[in-house]
Write a structure and sequence with these properties.
heterodimer, A: alpha/beta, Aldehyde Dehydrogenase, Chain A, domain 1, Aldehyde Dehydrogenase, Chain A, domain 2, 3 domains, 10-stranded mixed sheet, 6-stranded mixed sheet, 18% strand, B: alpha/beta, TIM Barrel, 9% strand, disordered N terminus, Aldolase_TIM (chain B)
């Protein structure tokens, strides 16, 4: 077309970013890659093709890692780790800083390579992925620098196995590698087989930065390689990917003692209230669901619009969809690029074909070849429709309506997932009321898909657990520096002596604020050290777990009570326990056959005081994100926590789990010390007299082994802790895979409940989830 | 030159012949008060837009020519004289060196209008005789708009009598700042009536309105009161045209068109001095309002130094070498 013709049509024309440098880099590498192990590339082995999804062209050949490769990588990481950790935070900070700088220097090469490999528009890789990846390295260089001063008593986990997806290849690498290295870990990383090229370039930069050999190892290949890493001798697995695979990893690592963080799928709600800036909310959807072709775990894929503005909003939205430009991802004027692979394209087509709703597809021209799918809106859907529940992972938005804020919350939370959410309203009261009530790890107010290294990212429910970014992200890459000791199991005393009580007292379960007989109707005789019968403890069963969880869920309002009130009640419990100190001390001594009863009661009272103190002090933070935004890192209670109490210290152990949990607003189902349960059944009388609302604390007695699976597999429990002497860590972690509840288990290791390790931040952290609420502002 | 060709080259200046003129409507305060503008979200959109669209090579040359056709070439200085205005008008007729236009196949390209103070209307009209380029007059006590109301109305009438085809009025910012929406509507109505057949551009002076929400409300009210164009600034405020303000105003234009069927034009003014900025504004119009708003009956740049940068870019496009100021005629 001539200039005068274009003057009439006012077309954008083509604005291609050159692929020449990226392709030249691939040629320089021989177009074939081996594994990056111990600071060097191995010769290519059995190779597979890495294709450009926009054109189908083969970009390079990657090697499928063998078991020997993975073992060599883990061994290299293991060998390098102690020296890397010993280098110290400031020493590691220099390397992280160098990596950040190198990534910045090669920013365009990374961006073009990413777009070639993944199909995402060059604007996104250039302006979002790569700058954010750099930011993670800068931010964590700072964390390394500060580690010794700010995280006393924390140490590296060791070797971290990290498995990342294809939607943000370099960015996910950065999210995983930067915090791991900062905290003194070494890594074995597996990029997705569709998109490994920027990881190969990153490996090259590790060499240029002079990173010690073995600190970063990268192995390539399909899911089988991922399984090998999971099974290998690593100390931690960090996985980002599908919920299905995440669940398998949870099962596979159960009881292994490997730390685990999972960042999984989502079906994130995007809620538009009638007082929102509708045009901005429409534009937000472009960034929510048509960002990266909708292949974003936190994509705002469920649109919830208030009924009164639904028609107006959807009209605006459809018009906006018409101006989206789909095509060559290397073109700088493209909004939507190519879907990552033909397999994914078919999956999206299939899901949309099965829809019950009204399907609108943007009438944008699509390239003839390549993996393209048009931006799609499906309206008239309801929560009961499959597409409102299942993750599509494509540029498909599913819409429904609501009437009131509380209905919006109900619809939003009617999902197995809990990754992110957006709330659009110009009314600060509505926005700040709704945001905390959404079951999600991240909430954006009047925005979407905002990310920063300083703000934690991660989910709840089946979107996984653990956070990436911020201070909370570091807990996923550190552990207590204390040397673990094995826990000695305690067997209940046996006996046959009967010593009739003046008046028989029947110990019961404590459910919903009431004493309850066990559903099964069985009790166990409890003997003292000398064989004297002390009483009977009910044998709780799965039905009692069910009843207790029901009662705990019904006590939801506890989470909304003020921290001051929760503190008052903890003080009240302490007061009432102290008043009965002699009786409890005697009971403990009687059961354990020891003499530490008085000391234990005193410690329990002190512990209650500690958590009463913490109740209104373990609060959130405002994070320094690089925009005009209040980014709140809010501490929210997990919900209902099932906890197996330590067998030793039957009172102090129970209090040590109960108090932090309820201080933070959780409700608990406690399973008392198995050998010494009667102090727990005495304790509910203290609870009864201390204004603890019914259902906030529930106490079961019985076999830890028998109750472990019913508790851990219960779908309405958010977390399970075990400090039991019974060998139940593995079965708990395995059963927890069902709804991917977070677990905290002792793996057979001892904890001194009288010492500092018996209380404090680790307990409070386990009792809370960090929700990041982004509130951009501006008059 | 046929009418079609004239329109094609942007030299046709009777928009009412191709587009029904906005007659205005009764003040609808419900609608006005519902206008929302979330500043952070709008700024994000404004910040990402330049990165979302890129126009290169021949397309860029064509777009820059389009920008020229939309320029209200402006002089609003205390020392303006008939001679100074004549020089500007000569530039308006021949905004780009003839050899460059020939090389681009864009002969006959002119700017959209010449914009002056009242006393310069007659010299400008005389200088533009036969060119088809209209003269726009800033009016109503420009730039502050604080002279007696009857004089402001009279000023419009005088400028129209002197030959101005377009009148750029300034609104009373105090009406917006104090929430006197009826006062703003009535004032704009009176200005529109005084303009008669001349087109009226309502200058909101957005830099003095405090919030984007006020910008949205004032935009709607001026359109309801019959503005043919809404314009950001006088060029004399400390903050003039910005992308966020533009986004708010053109979204208001879109809503107004959706509800009434009348297209209102948009004129960002002040601070747009680079060819690249002009491309961003054009893409903003194209994205948010559509191609119809890329013609000079619906879109104008209020600018004095923008043309110079575009000329240099066009010479670069033609020759491949970066240009210099002195190679282009001054205006």
């Amino acid at each position: 077309m001539t200039v005068s013709e274009i003057y009439e049509t006012m077309d954008y024309g083509k604005a291609p970013e050159s692929a020449a440098d990226a392709l030249a880099w691939l040629v320089d590498q021989g177009d074939r890659f081996g594994q990056f192990i111990d600071g060097a590339f191995t010769p290519p082995g059995e190779v597979f093709e890495s294709r450009n999804p926009a054109t189908g062209e083969v970009l390079a050949h990657l090697s499928q890692a063998t078991k020997a490769d993975v073992e060599a990588a883990v061994a290299a990481a293991r060998k390098a780790q102690p020296k890397w950790e010993k280098l110290g935070g400031p020493g590691r900070a220099r390397y992280l800083y160098a990596l950040a700088r190198l990534m910045q220097k090669h920013a365009r090469l990374f961006a073009v390579l990413e777009t070639l490999d993944n199909g995402k528009p060059i604007r996104e890789s250039r302006d979002i992925d790569i700058p954010l990846a750099q930011r993670h390295f800068y931010y964590h260089a700072g964390m390394a620098q500060l580690m010794e001063a700010e995280l006393p008593g924390r140490a590296a986990l060791g070797v971290c196995g990290q498995i990342i997806p294809w939607n943000f290849p370099l960015l996910m690498l950065a999210w995983k590698v930067a915090p791991a290295l900062a905290m003194g870990n070494t890594v074995v990383l597996k990029p997705a087989e569709f998109t490994s090229l920027t990881a190969m370039l990153f490996a090259d930069l590790c060499r240029q930065a002079g990173l010690p050999n073995g600190v970063v190892n990268i192995v390539t290949g399909d899911g089988a390689v991922g399984e090998m890493i999971v099974a290998s001798d690593v100390d931690k697995i960090a996985f980002t990917g599908s919920t299905e695979v995440g669940r398998k990893i949870r099962e596979a690592t159960a009881g292994s003692g490997k730390a685990l963080t999972l960042e999984l799928g989502g079906k994130s709600p995007y809620i538009v209230f009638d007082d929102a800036d509708l045009d901005s909310a429409v534009e937000g959807l472009v960034d929510a669901i048509w960002f990266n072709q909708g292949q974003v775990c936190c994509a705002g894929s469920r649109l919830l619009v208030q009924e009164g503005v639904a028609d107006a909003f959807l009209t605006k939205l459809k018009r906006r969809m018409e101006t989206l430009r789909i095509g060559d991802p290397l073109d700088k004027s493209i909004d939507v690029g190519a879907v990552v692979d033909p397999v994914q394209l078919e999956r999206i087509r299939g899901m949309v074909a099965g829809s019950n709703g009204e399907v609108f597809q943007a009438p944008c021209p699509l390239p003839e070849a390549g993996c393209y799918y048009p931006p799609t809106l499906i309206t008239g859907l309801h929560p009961a429709d499959t597409l409102m529940q299942e993750e599509i992972f494509g540029p498909v938005l599913c819409a429904t309506t609501f009437r009131t804020p509380s209905e919006a919350i109900d619809v939003a939370n009617n999902t197995r997932y809990g990754l992110a959410a957006s709330v659009w309203s110009e009314n600060i009261n509505v926005a700040l009321d709704v945001a905390p009530k959404l079951v999600a790890g991240v909430v954006w107010v009047n925005g979407t898909n905002m990310f920063d290294a300083a703000a934690g990212f991660g989910g709840v429910r089946e979107s996984g657990f653990g956070r990436e970014g911020g201070w909370e992200g570091l807990t996923a890459y550190t552990k207590s520096a204390a040397k673990p000791k094995a826990l000695k199991p305690i067997a209940p005393f046996k006996g046959d002596q009967t010593e009739p009580q003046p008046v028989d007292r029947t110990a019961k379960l404590y459910i919903g604020g009431k004493q309850a007989r066990p559903d099964g109707g069985y009790a166990r005789d409890i003997y003292g050290k000398t064989g004297t019968l002390l009483g009977q403890a009910p044998i709780g069963s799965r039905k009692d777990v069910r009843n207790a969880v029901e009662a705990a869920q019904a006590a939801k309002s506890w989470a909304g009570s003020t921290a001051h009130l929760r503190a008052q009640i903890l003080y009240y419990i302490a007061e009432n326990l102290a008043a009965r100190e002699g009786e409890f001390a005697a009971r403990i001594n009687q059961m354990t056959g020891g003499k530490t009863g008085a000391k234990e009661v005193d410690a329990a009272v002190t512990r209650l005081f500690s958590y009463a103190a913490w109740a209104d002090k373990f609060d959130g933070q405002v994070r320094a994100v690089p925009s005009r935004t209040v980014a709140l890192a809010m501490r929210e209670p997990c919900g209902v926590i099932g906890a197996f109490c330590p067998d030793d210290a039957p009172l102090l152990g129970l209090v040590s789990l109960m108090a932090p949990a309820i201080a933070m607003g959780n409700r608990v189902v406690l399973v008392a010390s198995e050998p010494f349960p009667l102090v727990a059944t005495d304790f509910y009388q203290v609870l009864d007299t201390s204004d603890v609302p019914g259902g906030v604390v529930n106490i079961l007695t019985g076999s830890h082994k028998d109750l472990a699976v019913p508790m851990a597999s219960h779908m309405d429990i958010e977390a399970v802790w075990s400090f039991s002497g019974a060998d139940i860590s593995a079965s708990i972690e395995k059963a927890a895979a069902g709804n991917l509840k977070r677990t905290w288990v002792n793996n057979g290791q001892a904890r001194d409940w009288f010492a500092a390790e018996g209380e404090g931040r680790p307990f409070l952290e386990a009792a809370t989830e960090v929700k990041t609420v982004w509130v951009p502002y501006g008059a | 030159m046929t009418t079609t060709e004239a329109t094609a080259l942007g030299t046709h200046h009777l928009p009412q012949t191709i587009e029904p003129r906005n007659p205005g409507m009764a003040l609808d305060l419900d609608w006005v008060m519902q206008a929302r503008a979330n500043r952070s979200a709008i700024e994000r959109r404004a910040a990402s837009l330049p990165a979302r669209r890129s126009v290169k090579k021949d397309n860029q040359a064509a777009w820059l020519c389009r920008a020229i056709s939309c320029i209200d070439l402006t002089t609003l200085a205390g020392d303006d004289t008939a001679g100074r205005v004549a020089r500007l008008c000569a530039k308006a007729r021949q905004p780009v060196r003839a050899d460059l236009l020939a090389a681009l196949g864009m002969e006959g390209l002119t700017v959209g209008a010449v914009c002056v103070y009242h006393d310069m209307v007659e010299p400008a009209v005389a200088a533009l005789q036969g060119s088809g380029i209209p003269v726009a007059a800033v009016s109503t006590g420009f730039p502050a708009g604080l002279s007696p109301f009857h004089l402001r109305v009279a000023e419009i009438e005088e400028s129209v009598k002197a030959g101005a085809a377009e009148i750029d009025i300034v609104i009373s910012r105090r009406h917006v700042l104090t929430g006197n929406w009826q006062g703003l509507y009535d004032e704009m109505r009176a200005f529109r009536a005084a303009c008669g057949d001349a087109h009226v551009k309502a200058i909101l002076a957005t830099g003095e309105l405090g919030t984007l929400q006020n910008v949205a409300r004032a935009s709607l009210i001026c359109m309801m009161a019959g503005a043919d164009f809404i314009k950001t600034s006088t060029g004399k405020e400390s903050v003039n045209a910005t992308l966020p303000v533009s986004l708010v105003m053109i979204r208001a234009i879109r809503d107004y068109y959706d509800r009434t069927g009348y297209r209102v034009g948009y004129k960002p003014a002040g601070g747009i001095s680079k060819a690249k900025d002009a491309l961003v504004y054009l893409s903003l119009m194209k994205e948010e309002l559509g191609d119809r708003w890329l013609r000079n009956d619906m879109f104008r740049f209020g600018a004095s130094s923008l043309l110079g940068d575009i000329e240099r870019q066009l010479e670069h496009q033609v020759t491949g070498a970066y240009s210099a100021n002195w190679r282009h005629a001054m205006g």
